[in-house]
Structures are given as C-alpha cells and as structure tokens.
C-alpha cells in the first residue's frame, strides 16, 4: 500500500510522517510512504505518473490551494483511494460533504493528546480497506499475502496458477514474476470468468491462450508456458476462447 502525506506546516508534516512511518515499520512493513509533500502541486505532479492508495491531506494549505480541491482532483482519477483529512478547524469539514469526497476519516489537530492514536486508527482503517479491495472483482486485481508483504496483481498480468511443491501453497505466474502463497485453486477459479480450471492442478487466464492442442491435450500461453488440459476441460475451453485469435490443432 502506498501512502501520500500533504501538510504545509513543517513540524506537523514531520510529526505526521514520523507517526505513520514508525507504526507501519512495526506493524505493516510492506507499506510505502511514497511522497511527503508541503503543497498540492507536489502531489498533483506525483499523480501525473503514479497512484497512491491512501492520502493524508491537510485542508488548509498555505500555497493558495486547499486539501479539499486536492482531494477533488484525486477522487476524479481514483474512486477507491482512502482520503483522510487533517485540519485545525472542524468547520472546514462541511466542505468535504459538499464536494462528495467520501473521506475515510477526519482528524482535528487541536486534540493533540489523542492525535497519534487518531492517526494510527485512521491508518489501520485504510490498511483494512486496502486489503478488502484487493479481494473484490471491481478492482480487477488479485491480492496475495507472502508473510508481511501484500501484493496486488492485475488480472491481465496473470498467466496461470498451479499447485506448488509446498503443501497448501499455490504458485502464481505473472508478467513481473513468480510467487508462492497459501490458497486453493477452487477459490481462484470462482473469482472471475477469465480464470479457467483446465486441470486439477492448474487454473489459466483465458485471455493469454494462443494455442490449443487437442491431440496432446495442452494449451500454450503468450509467455510460452504449456499447461495440461484434462479431457473434460478440453470440451469446454474451446467454447470460451476467441477462435479467430487462438490456434486450434
């Protein structure tokens, strides 16, 4: 999960960064603080080529802009990101409802005795939401956990899954690597129609098939892998692919 912080006051920016960094280091080491910014322009510049999953935004920024406008720009490009507002003035929170920004939380800076706890509580809510989103179809990503590491893999990057030599583990082959994680093929094949159980030990991504060999009972994928297809599955797989794009022998 990537986090962006935007706070114009140097001391408060450092405090916010320190609280999140130290807590994440101990409890969620896979979290990355991608940007610590002092104004909206730095965040907007970052967003030109990047995305984050959670934003801590000061509402009153000293550069003539404000966190509400920044959040509006973020929300137009990302409906799923968690936005957490940090402000000195509770009255400013009314504007977040006007702009329909669907903020995850609001933290008032004046309550310094509880400030750290509130930041950590909001951060934990963002982590929990991030993990849940990775398991839903609407995000089109498959989320795997490897120890403390959480990785989201877009469906279109996935070639296939197969049973691993390690007991109860599944091996995922995707464009950027190979990963082992605990899971069941039965659960994976039910996630999305793009995944097809071609054999008791393998689930393939139908989008990446380039060849079906009925005689030798295998499919070839764009990465060169050949996956065995059972007799029963062979009858179904041909009806699920675009025959104009797949070589069938």
UniProtKB/TrEMBL annotation:
Residue intervals passing through the bilayer: none
Q: Which residues form the HTH LytTR-type domain?
A: 142-243
- Listed GO MF terms: DNA binding; phosphorelay response regulator activity
Q: Which PROSITE patterns match?
A: HTH_LYTTR, RESPONSE_REGULATORY
Q: Which domain of life is it from?
A: Bacteria
* Pfam families for the chain: LytTR (PF04397), Response_reg (PF00072)
Positions where 4-aspartylphosphate occurs in the chain: 58
Task: Please report the stretch or stretches of sequence annotated as the Response regulatory domain.
Answer: 2-124
Q: Which UniProt keywords apply?
A: Activator, Cytoplasm, DNA-binding, Phosphoprotein, Two-component regulatory system
Keyword Phosphoprotein in record: yes
Tell me the function of this protein: Required for high-level post-exponential phase expression of a series of secreted proteins.
**Name of the protein:** DNA-binding response regulator
Please give the organism.
Lysinibacillus composti
């Amino acid at each position: 999960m990537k986090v962006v912080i935007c706070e114009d006051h140097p001391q408060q920016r450092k405090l916010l960064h320190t609280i999140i960094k130290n807590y994440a280091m101990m409890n969620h080491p896979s979290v990355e603080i991608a940007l610590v910014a002092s104004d909206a322009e730095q965040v907007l510049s970052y967003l030109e080529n990047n995305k984050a999953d959670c934003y801590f935004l000061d509402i009153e920024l000293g550069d003539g802009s404000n966190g509400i406008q920044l959040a509006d720009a973020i929300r137009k490009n990302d409906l799923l990101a968690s936005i957490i507002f940090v402000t000195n003035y509770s009255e400013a929170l009314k504007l977040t409802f006007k702009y329909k920004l669907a903020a995850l939380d609001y933290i008032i800076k004046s309550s310094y005795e509880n400030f750290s706890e509130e930041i950590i509580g909001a951060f934990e809510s963002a982590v929990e939401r991030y993990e849940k989103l990775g398991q839903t179809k609407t995000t089109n990503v498959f989320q795997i956990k490897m120890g403390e590491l959480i990785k989201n893999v877009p469906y279109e990057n996935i070639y296939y899954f197969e049973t691993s030599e390690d007991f109860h583990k599944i091996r995922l082959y995707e464009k950027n690597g190979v990963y082992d994680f605990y899971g069941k093929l039965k659960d994976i094949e039910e996630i999305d129609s793009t995944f097809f159980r071609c054999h008791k030990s393998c689930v393939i991504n139908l989008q990446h098939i380039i060849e079906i060999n009925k005689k030798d009972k295998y499919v070839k994928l764009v990465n060169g892998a050949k996956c065995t297809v059972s007799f029963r599955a062979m009858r179904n797989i041909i009806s699920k692919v675009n025959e104009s794009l797949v070589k069938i022998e």
